[in-house]
Amino acid sequence: MENLLKQIESHKSEIAAFSATDANAVEEFRIKYLGTKGLVKAIMGEMKNVAPENKKEAGQLLNEFKLFVENKFDTLKESTANGQQASANAIDLSLPGDTLPIGSRHPVVLMRNRIVSIFQRLGFAVADGPEIEDDWHNFGALNLPEHHPARDMQDTFYIQQNPDWVLRTHTSNVQIREMEKGKLPIRVVIPGRVYRNETVSARSHCFFHQVEGLYIDENVSFADLKQTLYFFVKEMYGKDVKVRFRPSYFPFTEPSAEMDVSCFICGGSGCNICKKTGWVEILGCGMVHPNVLTNCGIDPNKYTGFAFGMGIERPAMLKYGINDIRLFSENDVRFLKQFTSAI
Ligand SMILES: [Zn+2]
User: Fold this and answer.
1) What span, in angstroms and rounded, lies between the C-alpha atoms of 107 and 113?
2) Distance in Å, CA 242 to ligand 1 centroid
3) What is the pTM of this model?
């Protein structure tokens, strides 16, 4: 019994002096004193050596000791938890913040948004459609039957498993899909990516972007087409820009025209951009061919309409002085991060 008392006393002073600075030390304490092979268990085992008349007193002593160790354990646990909390709260507000990289819009997107927003102000809605298209929507319905020579100018990529599927050569497929819906009038602009089987160079790529427009209603005339495009050009290139239409040919419009604007670099006097002509070609347009309307289930005797289409890369190249179309798709951050304006 006396032996037991001595043991407890010596351990008590050792335990009282124990200090812990982190959770690992607290765990060490728990294992050493309160674990299944720990000191408290070992001393409890001493009970069997105590004489029966002292058992009651010894039991009390041991219980007190156990409580003492457990209290110490709780104190240690609490003090280290507070310490960690305190260091977590120690934020230095004078330190500079973490810089988050902010991206910039792609120059093609900037130009697309600018073009689309001008037509939206005229009441055009934005329409979208598939980039993988069937032959009918990309060619056939647009008055480009098989073996039509105009298909040669729009050679594209065919899907091997099904030769009826192509990567669309223009966004005109969406014009067909809008007309097929049968809801008239139609007034939409269609921005999107298109594909051509062309050799990649500084001036041409196997994919690029277009914005097309379509307006179908009763009594739509070429005068409406001109007025719409005049408004667009003045908004896009300024009030002083001059415009001219040149007769052209597209299978899906009749009559058809190319539209030029006076060179906005040299003002019309002639430079490298306009090849000394003073004019820059910006889009193709025309009155929707009656065959196209018929193909889409619209009565050409009742409805007429106009369509136009332009590339996005070329005006973006002129606007930003970019001399190589491949830069748009190379994902070089040094190039892309230069475009932060919201033109
Ligand atoms: Zn010029």
Assistant:
1) 10
2) 13
3) 0.69
